Amino acid sequence: MRTLFRLLVVLVLLVAIGFGIAWFAAGRATPPVIEIQSPAKVIGQKGTLTVSVQAPRGKFTAVTVAVEQNGKETPLFSLSGPGTATVAQETADRIRISEPFGKQAVPALTAGDARIVATATRPSFFGLREVSATMTRDIKVQLTAPLVQVVSTKHYINLGGSEFIIYRVNPPDVESGVKVGDIVYRGFSAQAAGIPHADPGLKIAVFALRYDQDLNTPMEVFARDEAGNEGTAQFDHQVFPKTFRRSTIDINDAFLQRVVPPIIQQTPQLGVSISGPGDLLPAFLKANGELRRIDAQKIASYAAQTAPRMLWNGPFIQLGNSAVESAFADHRTYLHDGKEIDQQVHLGFDLAVTSNVPVAAANDGTIVHASYLGIYGNCIIIDHGLGVQSLYGHLSSFAVKVGDTVKKGQIIGHSGATGMAGGDHLHFTMLVDGQMVNPVEWWDAHWIADRVLRKLDAVDGESQAAAVDRPAAEAPHRRARRRHRG
Fold first, then answer.
1. In terms of residue numbers, what domain contains 125?
2. For residue range 459-473, what is the model confidence (pLDDT) as tens digits?
3. Of the candidates 125, 141, 157, which is a domain's last residue?
4. Coil, strand, or helix at residue 4?
5. Residues near 287 by Cβ (< 8 Å), separated by ≥ 6?
6. pLDDT (0 to 100) of residue 197
7. Which of 10, 314, 361, 386 could link 406 by a cystine bridge, Cβ 3.0 to 4.6 Å?
8. Rg from Cα positions in the chain
9. Which of 189, 192, 193 is nearest to 203 (CA)?
C-alpha cells in the first residue's frame, strides 16, 4: 500500500514538474510579430496608420495601438473595438490594420516628437497562458504646410499645348510642381534651368493642358512635405481653345495583311494570334485600341528618367522639307468595307519626305528608348531634361542606342513604315512629364523666347543682383543664357 502511495506521489510530482516546465516554456513561446508600416518618419494633418501583426493561425487575445506625446497616451486602435479602422486578413497568420492618422483624425496631436506604440498578445499553452510583444516607432508631427509663391507672370496655354512657370517654395527641399486637374507636373530647381545664382527655393515647371481636358480645368502650383502637408497657390493664366481636325481612314485587307502580323509578332504581351485572314481585323482593332493604350503608358513611364536639368537648346527642329500628312490630336474614324470600325485620336505629327530619309534629333538630349514600341514600330525617345522629351516613330533603322548623348541635328535613324504606318513617314510628338503635347509650339522660336526665356531672364536679373560675387559669376551665366537662346 505504501509502495502504491509512493508511486502516486512520484507520479504527481512528475506531472507537476512537467506541467511547470510546459508552463515555463509556454511563457517563452514565440511572441507575435509586429510591423509598423506607416507612418515611416513624419505625420501631418492627414495620413494613414498601418500596422501588421502576425501569430500562428492569426489568433490574438489583444492588439492595441496608441500614440504617446508630451507624457500623454492617446489610444488609436483596439482589436476589441476597431472603430473606423480596417482590419484585413492578409494571410492565415497575419492581419493588417489601417486607419486615418494625423491631426485631423487625432486632434490631440501637436507639433513635435511623438511615439507610436503597438502591442499584440496571443494565446499559448492551450489558452492558459499569453505571450506579448511591443513595437515602437519615433515620429515627428509636422503640421505647417509649405509656402508657395508664383514668381512668373503671363501664362498663356493652348488646348493641347504647354507652358512654363517659375515659383518659390519654402522650405526648398519639398516636393512641388503644377497640378492641372488630376495630372501632376513635377517642379525642378531653377538652377537646373540655367540660373546658377537662384536661391534653392526657386523652382520651375513645364506643364500642359491635355487635348482632352476642359478649358476650365483648375490649375495650381503645389508644394508637399514628407508629412503630406500641402500648400498651394493660384497663378494668372489664360487658356485658348484649339480646333483639331477630323479625318476618315479606309482600312483595306492589303493594309491589314502588311501591318498587323509584324505588330502581333513583336508584341506577344497583347495575347493575340493570327491563324487566318479572318483574324486580321480583330487583331488590328485590339492593336489600335488596347495596344495604343499600353504604348502610351510605356511612353509616359520614361518621364521618370528625365534629367533634372535643361538639356535642350533653343527651339526644336522639324524634319527638314517634310509635308504634314496628319497633325496633333486629329480625330480619326476608321472604315473597313465602308463601315465604321473604330475611332482614335492621333497624338503627333506625321511628317513625310521620301522613303528612308535621315531623321535628326530635334534638340540636345539623351536617348532613353531605341527599340520596337507597339504601334509606333521602331521608335526613339529623347530626353531633353526637366520632363521634356521627344518621340520619333515608324523608323526603318537606328543610328543611336539607349544612353547615347545627342546634339540637335544629329542623325538618329531613318524614316520608315514600321508599326501601324500606312507608308514611309516619321511620327513625331513632344512629351511633357509623359503627356503628349502639340509639337508646333516647341518648333516655334518666338514661343520659346516668350514662354520660356523671357521668364528665365526676368528672374535671372533678380538672382544676379542678389549674388554676393556678381562680377565673377556674370560672364559664365551670360554664356549660359546665350546658349539657351539658340
1. 32-141
2. 876 666 565 444 443
3. 141
4. helix
5. 260, 263, 264, 267, 270, 272, 374, 375, 420
6. 86
7. 361
8. 32
9. 189
* pLDDT of res. 479: 37
* 285 and 398 together in one domain: yes
Distance CA 74, CA 56 (A): 29
CATH number of residue 272's parent domain: 2.70.70.10
Does 39 sit behind a cis peptide bond, omega within 30 degrees of 0 on the bond before it?
yes
Separation between Cα atoms, residue 424 and residue 417, nearest integer Å: 5
**78: pLDDT strictly greater than 60:** yes
Instruction: Mark whether 252 and 225 lie in a shared domain.
Output: no
In the chain, the number of structural domains is 3
One domain, residues 355 and 458:
no
User: Given CA atoms 212, 434, 44, 39 in this order, what sign does their dihedral have?
Assistant: positive
Averaged pLDDT of the chain:
90
The dihedral formed by the CA atoms of 205, 384, 449 and 189, expressed in degrees to the nearest 10: 30
Residue 20 forms part of a structural domain:
no
Give 72-126 as a 3 state SS string. Answer: EEEEEEECCCCCCCEEEECCCCEEEEEEECCCCCCCCCCCEEEEEEEEEEEEECC
Is 92 within a domain?
yes
CA dihedral sign, ordered 286, 290, 291, 292? positive
Are 213 and 253 within one domain? no
Among the three residues 141, 171, 198, which one is the final residue of a domain in this structure?
A: 141
C-alpha cell at 241: 481653345
- Residues 418, 316 within the same domain: yes
Residue 213, domain CATH: 2.60.40.10
Mind listing the pLDDT tens digit for each residue in 300-336?
A: 999 999 999 999 999 999 999 999 999 999 999 999 9
286 within some domain: yes
Question: Coil, strand or helix: which one is 240?
Answer: strand
- Would you state the pLDDT for residue 127? 53
Half-sphere exposure of 10 (CA within 13 A, CB side): 6
Nine-digit cell string for 77? 486602435
Looking at the fold, whether 292 and 405 belong to one and the same domain comes out as yes
